[in-house]
Every structure is written in structure tokens, then in C-alpha cells.
Design brief:
heterodimer, A: about 100 residues, 3 helices, about 80% helix, elongated, B: mainly alpha, 7 helices, about 70% helix
Chain lengths: ~100, ~200
């Protein structure tokens, strides 16, 4: 196997674990962690695609943009988690739902 | 072969750490495992030749995000139990495997093109072809700083409230003007009364 194929295997595995984490948890902080794992897989995929498509610079610049955006998503998500914990007393995402039915 | 073996070791380590991050009962342990995933991904990026992205991933993913997670856990509490999944775990495993298999089928069937000519470096691609991305990154960083400021401001007011109610045995007394509560205390003897003064002059 070439390093690109091994990296692609890592991308698929990380995406699977991230999806699994999003499906099994209701803790808001763990949801943020699952999103982090998904975005790490996406960063790796962008760099691998740039290498495979002979546009390494483009893939790396997009990966840097995705890292910054993901960090801001984590910041806002954790701020929301802290505020929800203070107001509701729980970080369970089903406890903050106001919809019934 | 040796390069592929190093990649394979890093991939297996990242996957094990990611799985442990999702299934660990303690959130603080999950944070440490997530930092290990970030470090493994950064090493893979470095071996692939993306040096700048590897440094950004290591400093931001394993540094800043870990510090933010630890801060949030210190506020929320590590004992915040995970109430469990909405759907049964076998169904979740099946859905995740289905997603991974479909993605692998699509990705491995793509043809890889060989490098043609001279590849532009990251600096040129970032500052000449993707200038809009740089501006968007600046806006995003500004929004993140505002988010952190909002988070810390709320913490400061909560601390002030706690200090006023029970801190050190002292209480903060709010002074309410007498007219605000509909009661005006009688004026002490010899105090200045403007109505009485007008009556005398008349």
C-alpha cells in the first residue's frame, strides 16, 4: 500500500468513528469532540486530495482554512455548553429541547 | 515500505485514540485522547509534506482546543454523566460502518493523477489564489475572540453574584431610595422642610 492509500484508510476510519460518536452521545462537550474528529479526517482528506491531484498548495490552503473554521466552531460550541450548563443545569442535548412530541 | 509502515502505525494509533475518546466515561480522558489524535494526524501531515498545516494542526488542535476543552470541563464538571445514545448502539455502529464503506468505495475508485509540471507552493497558493480564504479566516478568528470574551464576561458576573451572596460572610446591600418603594420616612426634628418655609412666608 502506498502512503496515500494508508492515509485514505485513516480518513475513512476517522470519519466512521466521528459519525459513531455523534450518534451515541448526547453530551454537548462530546458532540464537540466528535465534530473535531470529523474535521481532522476532512483536513487529512484535503491534503491527500491535493497530493493526489497535483495541487498540493491548494489542498493545504483549504486545510488551513478548515482548521481555523473548526476551531471557531469548537469555541462557540463550548461557550454554548457552558452557558447551557449554567442556565439549565445539564449538558444533555435532549434536556434543552423545547419541542415536545 | 518503511514509509507506509510508519503511516499505518500512525493511522492505527489515531483510530484507537479516536475510539477511546468517544467511549471513555470521563470527559477529561476523552480530551487527552483527542489531543493524541491531533498529534497523530499532525505527524501524518508532516510525513505527507504539508509542513505548515502540520504545525497549525499541532498548535491549534492539540494545544488551543485542548485548553478550551479543559476550561469548559472545569466549568461544567467532569462528573457530567453521558446519558447514553438516542438510538441503539448496534444501529449506530451499522450506520457508521455503512458511511465508512460507502466513502471508501467512492474514494478508492477515483483515479489519481500524476504530478504535472511544477507544483505551486503553499504561500503562493494561499496569498495569490485563495486570498478570500485568508480574509474569511481573519473574520472567523475575530468571531471566536468575541465568543471567548462573551464566555468569560458571563463567568465574571456569576463570580460577582456568588461573592455578593455568600462570599466571606459579607452581604452586598442594595440601597433603595425611599420613594422607590412607596414609603417616605418622617423627617427628623429640625430638618429643613421647604413646604413649611413657604407657609411661613405667606
Amino acid at each position: 500500500m502506498t502512503p496515500l492509500q494508508v492515509g485514505l484508510l485513516g480518513v475513512i476510519g476517522l470519519l466512521g468513528v466521528g459519525c459513531y460518536g455523534l450518534l451515541i452521545t448526547r453530551n454537548l462537550i462530546k458532540v464537540v469532540m466528535a465534530l473535531q474528529i470529523l474535521v481532522k479526517a476532512v483536513v487529512l482528506a484535503l491534503v491527500l486530495a491535493g497530493q493526489a491531484g497535483s495541487q498540493a498548495g491548494l489542498g493545504q490552503s483549504l486545510a488551513a482554512t478548515v482548521i481555523v473554521a473548526d476551531t471557531m466552531v469548537a469555541v462557540v460550541g463550548l461557550a454554548l455548553a457552558v452557558q447551557i450548563r449554567r442556565r439549565v443545569g445539564s449538558v444533555d442535548i435532549s434536556a434543552i429541547s423545547t419541542l415536545r412530541g | 515500505m518503511g514509509d507506509s509502515a510508519i503511516h499505518l502505525i500512525l493511522v492505527v494509533g489515531a483510530l484507537v485514540c479516536a475510539y477511546r475518546a468517544m467511549t471513555s466515561p470521563r470527559i477529561l480522558s476523552s480530551t487527552i485522547y483527542l489531543a493524541c489524535v491531533s498529534a497523530a494526524v499532525a505527524m501524518m501531515l508532516y510525513l505527507l509534506g504539508a509542513y505548515q498545516v502540520a504545525v497549525i494542526e499541532l498548535s491549534v488542535g492539540a494545544g488551543l482546543v485542548t485548553v478550551l476543552l479543559v476550561y469548559a470541563i472545569s466549568v461544567v464538571g467532569d462528573d457530567a454523566s453521558d446519558p447514553g445514545s438516542v438510538i441503539p448502539r448496534p444501529v449506530a455502529v451499522g450506520l457508521a460502518l455503512l458511511t465508512a464503506v460507502m466513502l471508501g468505495y467512492m474514494a478508492y475508485s477515483l483515479p489519481s493523477t500524476a504530478a504535472i509540471g511544477r507544483v505551486p507552493p503553499l504561500i503562493r497558493a494561499l496569498w495569490e489564489q485563495r486570498v478570500l480564504d485568508v480574509w474569511i479566516q481573519m473574520v472567523l478568528i475575530f468571531a471566536g475572540v468575541l465568543g471567548i470574551l462573551g464566555l468569560l464576561a458571563e463567568g465574571k458576573s456569576a463570580r460577582a453574584k456568588a461573592h455578593g451572596s455568600a462570599g466571606n460572610g459579607h452581604r452586598t446591600v442594595k440601597v433603595v431610595p425611599p420613594t422607590a418603594c412607596g414609603y417616605a420616612p418622617p423627617a427628623p426634628r429640625g430638618a429643613h422642610d421647604p413646604a413649611k418655609k413657604e407657609e411661613v412666608h405667606a
